[in-house]
Amino acid sequence: MNNVIRTALITGASRGIGLAIANIFKSKNIKVLTPSRQQLDLSSNESIDAFLKRLNVPVDILVNNAGINTIAHTKDISDQNIESTLQLNLVAPLRLIRGIIPQMIQRRFGRIVNISSIWSVVSKSGRVTYAASKAGLNSLTQTLAIELAAYNILANAVAPGYTNTELTKMNNTAEQIEEIKKLIPLGRFAEPEEIAEVVYFLCSEANTYITGQVIVADGGFSCQ
After folding, report:
1. What phi and psi values does residue 29 have, to the nearest 5 degrees?
2. How do the domains of the chain map onto residue ranges?
3. Residue 120 per-residue DSSP state
4. Phi, psi of 69 (to 5 degrees)
5. pLDDT tens, position by position, for the chain (224 residues)?
6. Runs of H (alpha helix) within 87-172
């Protein structure tokens, strides 16, 4: 990155895609901030605001990766499901972005990547709040791209399809996973590292012109 050491803030980096993103960034000599839940509780706006006040280093790259996916049919969905899913998946990323972009604007450099989902593009029963939150994240990303372009800040979303993570295994049985693989043209799930490579490119200085896009990485699943 032109010998400039950038600093990246990544949420949800303890496992899965977030961990893979943190690892590739570190391998590329990017300083990585991966706050624990004690340091940054995304379910609490007060915690988010307090974290931003304590943040004493400029953030060049923001990756909003943390999220939840509680399966429930619309007729059975609880108020808590609605509130917690929208808070973690949409409100928290927006609050972090709002708090971090002033310094990006001042430095005239920034890369923002929001981790969306294939379920923001196509849908599946039981994903109503998850799909709504991720579709909102896509729209947020597009608006950011327009607002921030003049300051050399690029904002994109990456929408993974089925990925080999704990969350996928939690929401699908082993038998279901084997059946799902048959529906994917590439015949397999993505590995977290493959998604991380896409995120890294979008956040790197090699990306100079891609902004406002939702990059779907699903092995061809949504093409059918």
Report:
1. 65, 35
2. 7-218
3. G
4. -140, 90
5. 457 899 999 999 999 999 999 999 999 999 999 999 999 999 999 999 999 999 999 999 999 999 998 889 999 999 999 999 999 999 999 999 999 999 999 999 999 999 999 999 998 899 999 999 999 999 999 999 999 999 999 999 999 999 998 878 887 889 999 999 999 999 999 999 999 999 999 999 999 999 999 999 999 999 98
6. 92-107, 128-148, 166-171
CA Rg value for the chain:
17
Contact (Cβ atoms closer than 8 angstroms) between residue 65 and residue 20: no
152's torsion region: left (phi>0), alpha (psi -120 to 50) or beta? left
Q: Which amino acids are annotated catalytic?
A: 130
Question: CA-CA distance, 220 to 187, in Å (whole number)?
Answer: 9
Which is the CATH superfamily of the domain at 7-218? NAD(P)-binding Rossmann-like Domain (3.40.50.720)
DSSP state of 114: E
DSSP code, position 74: G
